[in-house]
Amino acid sequence: MKTLDGQVAWVTGASRGIGAETAKLLASRGAAVVIGYGTARADAQKVADTIGTSGGRAVISGGDVRKRETAEAAVKAALENFGRLDILVTAAGINHWGGLEQITEKDVTDVMDVNLRGTLLSIQAAVPSMGEGARIVTISSRLAQNPQAGSALYSASKAAVIAMTESFAKELGPRRIRVNSVAPGLVETDMTREAVAGRGAAVAAQTPLGRIGQPADIAGAIAMLVSADSGWITGRTLRADGGMV
Question: Residue 51 contacts by C-beta under 8 Å, 6 or more apart in sequence?
Answer without folding.
Answer: 23, 24, 27, 33, 57, 58
